[in-house]
Amino acid sequence: MIPQSFIQDLLNRVDIVDVVGKYVQLKKGGANFMGLCPFHNEKSPSFTVSPAKQFYHCFGCGAHGSAIGFLMEYSGQSYPDAVRELAQSVGLSVPEERDRLPPAQRAEQQAKSLALSDAMTRAGEFYRRQLRGAPTAIQYLKGRGLTGEIAAQFGLGYAPDDWQGLESVFGSYRDDAIAGPLIEAGLLIESEKRDADGKPRRYDRFRDRIMFPIRNTKGQVIGFGGRVMGQGEPKYLNSPETPLFSKGTELYGLFEARHAIRETGYVLVVEGYMDVVALAQLGFANAVATLGTACTPVHVQKLLRQTDAVVFSFDGDAAGRRAARRALEACLPYVADNKTIRFLFLPAEHDPDSYVREEGTEAFAAQVRDAMPLSRFLLQCVTEEQDLRQPEGRARAQYEAKPLLKAMPPGGLRLQIVRELAEATGTTPAEIEAVCGLGSDAARVGRFAQPRARARRQAPAGLEQRVLQLLMRYPALSARLDDDARALLLDADTGGSEVLAHLVASCDALQGEVNFAAFSEQLAQSPFADVYANVRAGVLREDIDEEPATLEFDAAIAKLLVEPLQRELTQLQSAIENGTADEAGKTRMRWLIAEIHRRKRLG
Question: What SMART domains does its record include (predicted)?
Fold first, then answer.
């Protein structure tokens, strides 16, 4: 876990205008900067970046956040990855609370990571240069219908048919200091055989292959895929697992496809590097591919950070169906009622590239639109080989469905699948839930079990919402709340507001100069994150100076205090009417009447 104090320090050091400006063309407009929103299509700019608040906000689609949030939304990075990228840009090292490595060892690891990253970058440049002078490789790519522009966009290259080709870039492989990082990066292979002087033989892993650089979400080369141009095995050779590269977590083409994914509203997952590049050439720039391995849950998480709709494309043969089944299993923990996952099965004689070239882009787009929903594919998987006319077949279908349904989070989609499975097997949804062990979860969403009462937090409204906005913008205003105001407004025992009490406590705890973006990130980690997100949106829609904000805050607090005072007055008046009030109560009542009138005038 990254300490909150570090987040505040980091956001005090970075300038969100510089961060966003790397990806969006910004122009000065008054106190803020304006540009076209990168998160939805628009012709006139509604995307603003505030240097004062260190926040971005789009008045068109509502997207907003800090520099950390922008990197997460734009690049699909996780929170820790976005923090690390920002920290690296200002020369900071992220002090993770679980990290127990001594500083010297941590620095050594960082140096090694930089050396590997530099090696991959230089190797990629070498392969690209080699492609320019390799007519056979150029002819092969042209034969696949690729242009020089698309090859440059994906950074395609060529590894020459040379056992020591990279020596021209890095120096002699006999030097351990040179060869070490190249071996660890997967660019060289060290043989068990040795030369006469006892040195191990080292040679290039990739030879006479078209080279596909694999980039992470920041655009850095972390691995390669090499494809033979004629006969040879393996057809594709990938980088091995390294400190930079893990096949089970990376997707080829995701960096290049991120803009097209947003524009089209979905990501297309295919099986090979060449499919990705060829589809981009043919107008489907939103395609990505797994790296010669089955789709993993991490892949699915990455995809769903980019978009709410995923289409997997597989061959229609037995191998394609097996790969689709593995993808289905990887998706199940992350399905949601607002996400769409579908499966496209092309005719056995086609891959996406050949289908588009033979049938055309419109025909392929129609195939994508008609792709099989996850629900139908799941039901097909568990029923297609069973004889549902027989009890044994129906029972087997339920048996096959059990681990799949249990892997899904409770929600509307799982409920619908349960209903369809019940109909197909001649049972009731409640019986399916019982057989599959879903009862405890189903109580939250189904009508087949009694739902448990759930406490609901009331969203702040009116004056309280405004006070929250003013406090979030100017936390120092919390100092204006006296003891009486705090007792009446913040104490839960007297009906005070939980969220207001939390925000006031957070404001009180701040020290030194307050950065709005850093404070917002801190609040986003609290139990009231959903409430604060709505409050923050209101803050971003206006610019209010501190002096008028202070006057408005005092007036709003005065009005808010009238309600608890009025409640106490009503109770005392009832006591006087019943003859149970003493002299102190009568004195308190007279003070309350005057105080309520005074506060109403202030408000």
Answer: DnaG_DnaB_bind (SM00766), TOPRIM (SM00493), ZnF_CHCC (SM00400)
The backbone region for 496, taken as left when phi is positive above 0, alpha when psi lies in -120 to 50, beta otherwise, is: beta
CA distance to 49, 78, 88, 511, 512, per residue, from 520 (Å): 15, 18, 22, 15, 16
For the domain with range 103-238, which CATH number is right: 3.10.20.30, 3.20.20.70, 1.10.10.2840, 3.90.980.10? Answer: 3.90.980.10
State the number of CA atoms in the 13 A half-sphere of 145 facing the CB: 15
- The answer to whether 388 and 425 are in contact (CB under 8 A) is yes
Cis previous bond, 234, omega within 30: yes
Residues 235-268 pLDDT 10s: 889 999 988 898 888 999 999 998 899 889 999 9
CA distances from residue 523 to 85, 477, 517 in whole angstroms, order as listed? 21, 17, 10
Which of residues 188 and 544 earns the better pLDDT score? 188
Nearest one of 306, 81, 147, 123 to 213, comparing CA atoms: 123
249 three-class SS: coil
Kindly report, residue by residue over 310-352, the tens digit of the pLDDT. Answer: 999 988 788 888 999 999 999 999 998 889 999 999 988 888 8
CB 428 within 8 A of CB 435: no
Q: Which fold has domain 462-602?
A: DNAb Helicase; Chain A (1.10.860)
Domain ranges of the chain: 4-89, 103-238, 254-370, 380-442, 462-602
Residues in the chain: 603
Q: Are 56 and 22 in contact (CB under 8 A)?
A: no
**Can you give the pLDDT at residue 461?**
58
Sorting pLDDT into bands at 50, 70 and 90, what band is 135? very high
Say how far apart CA 294 and CA 326 lie, in whole Å. Answer: 7
CA angle 398, 403, 408 (to 5 degrees): 110
Helices (H), 214-267: 254-264
Q: Strands, E, within 15-95: which ranges?
A: 27-29, 32-35, 47-50, 55-58, 64-65
Query: Which residues have C-beta within 8 Å of that of residue 16, sequence separation ≥ 6?
Result: 49, 50, 51, 54, 55, 56, 66, 67, 70, 517
Provide the strand spans (E) within 166-324.
188-194, 200-204, 209-215, 221-227, 236-238, 267-270, 287-289, 309-315
Exposure string over 44-54, b if 16+ CB within 10 A, otherwise e: ebbbbbbeebb
Look at domain 380-442 and name its CATH class: mainly alpha
Question: Do strands 209-215 and 157-159 pair parallel, antiparallel, or not at all (unpaired)?
Answer: antiparallel
pLDDT, mean of residues 8-22 = 85
156 burial (CB, 10 Å; 0-12 / 13-18 / 19+) is buried
Task: For residues 239 and 419, give the distance between their C-alpha atoms in angstroms, rounded to a whole number.
Answer: 45
Q: Are 307 and 39 in contact (CB under 8 A)?
A: no
CA distance 553 to 114: 50
What CATH architecture applies to the domain 4-89? Alpha-Beta Complex (3.90)
The correct answer on CATH 2.60.40.10 for the domain covering 254-370 is no
Contact 166, 123 (CB under 8 A): yes
